[in-house]
Amino acid sequence: MDKIRDSLVVAHASVRLEVMFLLDAEKELAMNAFAVKFFDILTRRKILYGVDPFSDSSISLDAMRRRTRQILLNLLLRMRERYALVSKREEQLASIIADVIGPLRACAKSILKLEDRGMATPKDALNIVISEMDEVNGEPLSTQIDMLRRQGSITPGSEKALLFLLMHISQQMYQRTMGNGRRVQENGCV
């Protein structure tokens, strides 16, 4: 690690690169503990050099379901807490929204996999999940999320409404993993 420290510091500062140092002996434990993250890795990885350490790997659907629920509940708790802290300065809500979009997209992708519905990108998966919610108009929401991800901001004054909508979507997604929505697979591996 000492040999790559300087390059890693530069990459982290430049593009917020985050590295995971995982030993072979930890692979299976980590995959089950962080099933959503590793599902994303399994489906989107690109090998730049050497042997693919995940070529023969799978994740149990039970671990994915459990971890998806945990992430969604954690997101809900974090959004409420952050709202309470910064809601007097509504423009600060944009950074909270930006922080939850990635995990929400990953959870949406996991939900579609749990429902045995194919392999969408995380962005497309969230759009699919949202489009299936009767009370949510996905088109303007998708536009706002894309604008926030590209520009770091959204239309002033819309931050609070968007954050509360994302809380609602997170709750609906959580319920969906409990079987209160589409059918979720009960056994098997990814």
What is the share of helical residues?
55-70%
- End-to-end Cα distance, whole Å, is 32 Å
Sheet having the most strands = none
Which structural class do the helices and strands define? mainly alpha
Number of helices: 8
Order of helices and strands: HHHHHHHH
- Shape, per Cα inertia axes: globular
Mean pLDDT: 85
Residue ranges: pLDDT <50 for 5 or more in a row? 180-190
User: What percent of residues are in strands?
Assistant: under 5%
Report the strand count.
0
Rounded to the nearest angstrom, the radius of gyration is 18 Å
In short:
The protein is built from eight helices and no strands. The chain is mainly alpha-helical.
Textual characterization of the structure:
This protein has about 190 residues and is mainly α. The chain has a domain at about 60-175. About 65% of the residues lie in helices and about 0% in strands. The chain has 8 helices and no strands. Helix 3 (about 35-45) packs across helix 5 (about 95-115) and helix 5 packs parallel to helix 8. The chain is globular, with a radius of gyration of 18 Å. The two termini are about 30 Å apart. Residues about 180-190 have low confidence and may be disordered.
